[in-house]
Structures are given as structure tokens and as C-alpha cells.
């Protein structure tokens, strides 16, 4: 019902809000299925940071979608044909929850029975993401890094506009004394919780993706209430860009270090004298790289959207 309501609305602000509700409901479904890590990611990324970035982008466009005579019948036909092919491809799949499914006969028992002895991480999800399928997680980190570069290239802002924004605090936020005081009280707790999620992902739900988004959300909250002038005292654009690359290099560098020590790429067993200790160290380092890249990319995107908004207002005036 939420998805259908999104397709029928012309109010883009309402669309963004419904999208956040959709993500939050999806997180509830994942939680009900005991997929706590996936629910955590969906709530923080889908309902949290994505909603903030979409709201920031709305300042660059009109609130209501304009009517057009364009009728995308060809596009609708392509999407419909693709959907039919995908549905046809699922007919040969095992029934949902079937005990005879290959994943229940081979994949899942392998991880459940052997991951603790091989990796030594109580959270099986973390051991799978960071160790068994470390290549795939490295690819996801590179996707975030590439997306950040693309957005930074498209939303380039002149130095004059940056200087104007640094001196600017939203007028409507200057009067919000209660919000600003509460934000100052909440910010240390948000950042501390992000660090907890980052370094406790081996033992409970969490990891670099969730921690990076939570950390970025705290900085974005502070920026929205106090302006870029104060936020940029710590998070300068040059520093953010360097840290974005540092996170990816840290992840890939761990793999290169494993090769130099005589193992395979991202084979953490060779990092320490004990393979289990090597797994712990490798997972800790690669998750830290993921967290750094995710946090810096999210903060940079919000800063770019804010600068671009100021530039548009300046041109209109």
C-alpha cells in the first residue's frame, strides 16, 4: 500500500516521507524474520540517512512534480517483460522454507557448524560478510566510493559559494534553542553508539556499514542545527575526501598484506600466529575501512547538497 501510494503522489516531500516509512516497515519485517543485521542496515540506511539526503536534494527542485504529456509505454513494456522473465526464472527455485533446498543442505550448515572454529566470531553474519565473502564486501565498499566520487563530480561548488555557506546558519534554526541544546546532548551519545556498533559487530548486530551511517547521521544533525561553519572546523572537505580513499585503501591493503605474508588475498589467517586471532584482526581492520568510507561519503554528500542549495538561492536573489 505504501509503494502504491508513492506511485500515485505528486508531492515529492510526501514521497520522501513514505519512502522512509517503507524502509522502516521493511526493517520490521526483517526483524520479525530474525535477520537483525539486515534490519539494522535497512533502518539506518533506508529510513535514516537516505531520507535525510533526499530531503536535502528536495531543496534544489520544486516540491510538486509537474504534469507532463510523456507516456512511457515503451519503458512500461520493457519493465513488464523483464518482470515476467524474472518470475519465470523463479519457478524452478525451491519452495520457501523447504528443508530440501540446497542452501539448507550445503551452504547454511557449513557456515553454522564451521564458522566458529575457523573464524572465531560469534556473529555468523559478520564472519560471512567480512571473511567468507570478503571479496563481495570489498566490491560494495568500492561501489560506495565510486558513487561518492560521481556525486562530488556532479555537484561541484565554487569556493565563493562555500565561503558564503560557512558564514551562514539557517535563520529558522537560530531560534530553536531547545533543539540545539538537545542536539549537543545527543551528539556524543550518537557518536559513541556508532563506535560501539563499529567495534562490537563481531559479537552482536552491527559493523562498518551501520556504524558509518550512524556516525554520519550525527554529524548531519549537528550541521542542520548549527550550520557548516562549525561542522567544517573538524570535517574539512579535503580531509573528508582523503578519508574516503583511506577507508578503501585500508580494506584492500589488508588483502595485499595477507599476500605479502604468504597467504591469499583477504586470507586473514596469516596476519597472526594463530589463524583465529588473524581472522579477528583482519575483520576488525576491514570493517574499520568500511566504516570510514561510508561515514565520509555520507557526510560529503550532505555537504555538497547544502552548498549547491545555497548557490541556487544566491543565483535567484
TrEMBL record:
Domain of life: Bacteria
Keyword S-adenosyl-L-methionine: no
Transmembrane segments: 12-31, 43-61, 73-91, 138-157, 177-197, 209-231, 243-262, 282-303
A GO cellular component annotation in the UniProt record: plasma membrane
Main subcellular localisation: membrane
Cellular compartment(s): Cell membrane
Domain Na+/H+ antiporter MnhB subunit-related protein residue range list: 178-299
UniProt keyword annotations, A-Z: Cell membrane, Membrane, Transmembrane, Transmembrane helix
MrpA C-terminal/MbhD domain location: 2-61
UniProt key word Membrane: yes
Membrane topology: Multi-pass membrane protein
InterPro entries xref list: CPA3_antiporter_subunitB, MnhB, MrpA_C/MbhD, MrpA_C/MbhE
Family: Belongs to the CPA3 antiporters (TC 2.A.63) subunit B family.
Name this polypeptide is given: Multisubunit sodium/proton antiporter, MrpB subunit
Organism expressing this protein natively: Desulfofustis glycolicus DSM 9705
Lineage, broadest ranks: Bacteria, Pseudomonadati, Thermodesulfobacteriota, Desulfobulbia, Desulfobulbales
